[in-house]
Every structure is written in C-alpha cells, then in structure tokens.
Amino acid sequence: MTLPRCPKCQSEFTYEDGDLYICPECAHEWGKAGGDEPAEAAKVWKDAFGNVLTDGDSVTLVKDLKLKGSSAVIKVGTKVKNIRLIDGDHDIDCKIEGFGAMQLKSEFVKKS
Question: Which NCBIfam families does the record associate with it (predicted)?
C-alpha cells in the first residue's frame, strides 16, 4: 500500500495516525477522506431568541445581572452598543455605561 504525498511540501515520507496522514518534514496533517484540511465550521453566536449576533451589534439585556464582588445589578432592558464577539464562556466583550468594560453571555441578551 502506498501512502499519498504531502499536499504542502510533496514529501513522500508520510505516515498514518488514526484517521490522519502526517508529514514528518513539514508537520502538515490532513484527513484520509480527501481534501487538504477538514473544513472547520465557522462559529456562530446567537442571542437568547436565536438571532445571529455580529461584531458591532447593539443588544439589550433580558435578565438582571448581578456583578460579582459588588452589590450593583445591571437591570433588564439595559442597552449595550458596539459589542465584540469572542471565544469563551462569556462570549460578548463590551462596555456598559456606568459599569465599564465587562464580558456577557450571549444567552442573556437580545439583538436590538
């Protein structure tokens, strides 16, 4: 059985590792099913009602949020402008007037 050449550097010294082929010369990995790299699904952020969020959107809170380490509460209906989407548990990076910079979960906002 002959193994395919590396699609990046054309090396003939590829080897199998599970469902992948690996090139020891350039460290390129690709799937056996064909194609160069498996297509990664683009991350989609959705609000509490299933609307797709994008960078720069304005959102409104749908739940009172208590701030850790403080007695302050951000009330329902607070509008947040110009959000930035990030990876992680808290996936919205924003500035809330009167509270400053913070991160929110997309499940507690609705797109305005």
Answer: phnA (TIGR00686)
Q: Which residue has the tokens 């329902």?
A: 76
**Encoded tokens for 82:** 């110009």
The rounded mean pLDDT for the chain is 88
Q: What is the pTM of this model?
A: 0.62
The confidence band for 41, taking pLDDT boundaries of 50, 70 and 90, is low
Predicted pLDDT of residue 38: 44
Tokens of 55: 């960078």
How buried is residue 7: exposed, middle or buried, by Cβ count under 10 Å (0-12/13-18/19+)?
Answer: middle
Q: Which residues of 37-51 are buried (b: 16+ CB within 10 A; e: fewer)?
A: eeeeeeeebebbeee
Rounded CA separation 72/27 (Å): 51
For the chain, how many residues are written? 112
Encoding tokens for residue 41?
């699904």
Is the confidence at residue 100, as pLDDT, over 70?
yes
